Amino acid sequence: MPKIGMLEIRKEQLIQATLVCVEKYGVADTTIIQIAQQAGLSSGIISHYFGGKMGLLYETMRDLMRELQISISQKNKADPQLTPHRAIEIIIECNFDPNTDSARMKVWLSFWSMSMHQDDLNRLQKINDSRLHSNLLFHFKQLLPEKQAKNAARGLAALIDGLWLHGSLRSEEFDHYQARFIAKQFLNKLLEEQ
């Protein structure tokens, strides 16, 4: 009989191993055997917990999305003087967290690419896009007329995705601070024009 709590521990080990393997080998060349070896577990456990490699990739993406939402939520709760402008800055800061390593960036990039062809990943991508857009729109509506708020939310969401994509494809290390600066500059320009 498995020990209580081992399921979550094993899943976390496999998610972390997936990040390492995708960074090392890329999504297409990563195998469940490599992931299992990296985690120090048997490969059968991946099929048992996730149904295979695609299920594990799906859970890895859900985990990364959950990390982002928790980070945003914690920063919002920690700010007693939270304004809509500051809430948007927090979304930017969390999307370009300097602690985000290249493994996570590569998984995100692979996920975006694969979501065009995999229904489960496409649904997850739509959830992610919708969450970013609706969070931005909620705060922009408190600062701008509705039509401008919609355009601002769509524009900033596209800029965030574009900066990530551009940064992921470059050979040099991604500059999170520069990405934050660019996105905040865009935000401030939008609000100055009002």
Automatic annotation (TrEMBL):
<dbReference type="InterPro" id="IPR039538">
    <property type="entry name" value="BetI_C"/>
</dbReference>
<dbReference type="InterPro" id="IPR036271">
    <property type="entry name" value="Tet_transcr_reg_TetR-rel_C_sf"/>
</dbReference>
<dbReference type="GO" id="GO:0045892">
    <property type="term" value="P:negative regulation of DNA-templated transcription"/>
</dbReference>
<dbReference type="InterPro" id="IPR001647">
    <property type="entry name" value="HTH_TetR"/>
</dbReference>
<feature type="domain" description="HTH tetR-type">
    <location>
        <begin position="8"/>
        <end position="68"/>
    </location>
</feature>
<protein>
    <recommendedName>
        <fullName>HTH-type transcriptional regulator BetI</fullName>
    </recommendedName>
</protein>
<dbReference type="GO" id="GO:0019285">
    <property type="term" value="P:glycine betaine biosynthetic process from choline"/>
</dbReference>
<comment type="function">
    <text>Repressor involved in choline regulation of the bet genes.</text>
</comment>
<keyword id="KW-0805">Transcription regulation</keyword>
<comment type="pathway">
    <text>Amine and polyamine biosynthesis; betaine biosynthesis via choline pathway [regulation].</text>
</comment>
<keyword id="KW-0238">DNA-binding</keyword>
<dbReference type="InterPro" id="IPR017757">
    <property type="entry name" value="Tscrpt_rep_BetI"/>
</dbReference>
<dbReference type="InterPro" id="IPR023772">
    <property type="entry name" value="DNA-bd_HTH_TetR-type_CS"/>
</dbReference>
<dbReference type="GO" id="GO:0003700">
    <property type="term" value="F:DNA-binding transcription factor activity"/>
</dbReference>
<dbReference type="Pfam" id="PF00440">
    <property type="entry name" value="TetR_N"/>
</dbReference>
<dbReference type="Pfam" id="PF13977">
    <property type="entry name" value="TetR_C_6"/>
</dbReference>
<dbReference type="GO" id="GO:0003677">
    <property type="term" value="F:DNA binding"/>
</dbReference>
<feature type="DNA-binding region" description="H-T-H motif">
    <location>
        <begin position="31"/>
        <end position="50"/>
    </location>
</feature>
<keyword id="KW-0804">Transcription</keyword>
<keyword id="KW-0678">Repressor</keyword>
<comment type="function">
    <text>Repressor involved in the biosynthesis of the osmoprotectant glycine betaine. It represses transcription of the choline transporter BetT and the genes of BetAB involved in the synthesis of glycine betaine.</text>
</comment>
<dbReference type="InterPro" id="IPR009057">
    <property type="entry name" value="Homeodomain-like_sf"/>
</dbReference>
